[in-house]
UniProtKB/TrEMBL annotation:
UniProt superkingdom: Bacteria
Topology term for the membrane: Multi-pass membrane protein
Keywords associated with the record: Membrane, Nitrate assimilation, Transmembrane, Transmembrane helix, Transport
PANTHER family in UniProt: HIGH-AFFINITY NITRATE TRANSPORTER 2.3
Presence of keyword Glycoprotein: no
Residue stretches making up the Major facilitator superfamily (MFS) profile domain: 6-381
Domain PAS per the UniProt entry, residue ranges: 381-426
Similarity comment: family membership: Belongs to the major facilitator superfamily. Nitrate/nitrite porter (TC 2.A.1.8) family.
Protein localization: Cell membrane
Matching InterPro entries: MFS, MFS_dom, MFS_trans_sf, NO3_transporter, PAC, PAS, PAS-assoc_C, PAS-like_dom_sf
Name of this chain's protein: NNP family nitrate/nitrite transporter-like MFS transporter
Protein's UniProt keywords contain Cell wall biogenesis/degradation: no
Domain PAC: 454-503
Amino acid sequence: MKRQKVQLPLQTLSLTAGFMVWVLISSLMPNIKQDIGLTEQEIALVTAIPVILGSILRIPIGYFTNRFGARIIFTISFILLIFPVYYISIANSLFDLILGGLFLGISGAVFSVGVTSLPKYYSKEKHGFINGIYGAGNIGTAITTFAAPVLAKTIGWEQTVRLYIVLLLLFAVSNFFLGDKKEQKIKQPIMQQIKEVYRNQILWFLSLFYFITFGGFVAFTIYLPNFLVNHFELDPVSAGLRTAGFIVLATILRPIGGFLADKFNTYYMLMFVFGGLTISGVILSFSPTIEIYTIGVLTVAVCAGIGNGTVFKLVPLYFSKQAGIVNGIVAAMGGLGGFFPPLVLTSVFNLTGHYAIGFMALSEFALLSFVIVVFMYYQEERQIDNKIIQNTAQGLMITNREGIIQSVNPAFTKVTGYEMEEVIGKKPNILQSGKHNRAFYQTLWSEVKTNGYWQGEIWNKRKNGEIYPEWLTITKISNEAGEIKYYVGQFNDISKEKMRMIK
């Protein structure tokens, strides 16, 4: 039990260490480019490269975490990272930075470990908050962004990079000895899990959401240091401090976003997130001064932080059996979201001389996500309504205003013997027993149209020809304009009550 309790702090600190390594190149780029001549396009490529493997590997790492446990995956990942970190410390060309940076992506891929492992130890009501706390390991990017340039100023960027080897060894050993050997394992084949989820539109909606929220966080993390130096002529340390402020704010708000998602409707939270990102994209497009630009960036930090904590609340709710692979796919899309924006922004600037079009793209994608969230909200409401109908103990039949049957529930089938497929598109008179004359039905429908409902005893006929009594309520459903849209019939079989009265 004690070993289980240590998993949240251990895995959160492990993610912090991983993210500290992940942004090494982007944080030290102002120093590196003094020794290795790079163009702006090459700088954008080199700083974005770690995101590629860090994104792609999140899918298999999520799967293997479910299969082998967080202890093994964290330990192996940190040992493997020693090699690219050392290689970067001796880099002297563009190729060296690209090759080292590619494998540095392993440090970003470890994100999938905790979001797959930690929910196993907690109830669903706490998943948002727990994943939010774990996601606060993003603070590792702030630590490196702030500390690495300061250290580089004193001991040089090469020695600064080598110091991270000590960090990797420390956490490899910590996970090996403190990780949970008895973590619950799931050994379902990876292709089977992918086949079960890839057609589910919710998977791709969540991937888009995280592409924007986490992608925006990563993109600004690797893009801001160099941008602030070149565009606003800040020194590397000042640019690092401002970037660290962005990271800290987004990171602090991540567990808060998860906590709020546990307490309130998740879709309301996402509407706020994407509404805010839509506005911030517009602000950044027309920001002539660093003050206005700061407002836009801080708005991104707030919305991205809350959004990152909120999205992963939904994954275990919709995909409890395939959480590992889905966490990996969603996390991978978030990582890729951090790869493309810096390249797009640099290309746009080279073509147009400003960044407005790039930031407007952020605004438009956020607006699209806002519309999708609204769609998902109302779709869920309809699904809830349908579940209520399907689980109602009374027989239920819904017709349109022309009297054509649109839907029935399982209780309808149990009473009448008719399956849904047999009655959809037909009229309710298939149930008529012949015991009531035309005047009875005219009176019935007259009351429905006058009073809005009719209630009483009626004799109907089952599919097998048996005539039975039921207590029926018919209600008309109108829209806000007063137009009749549906009629709803609710009924109970009262045959047994009739028999008791006769006895």
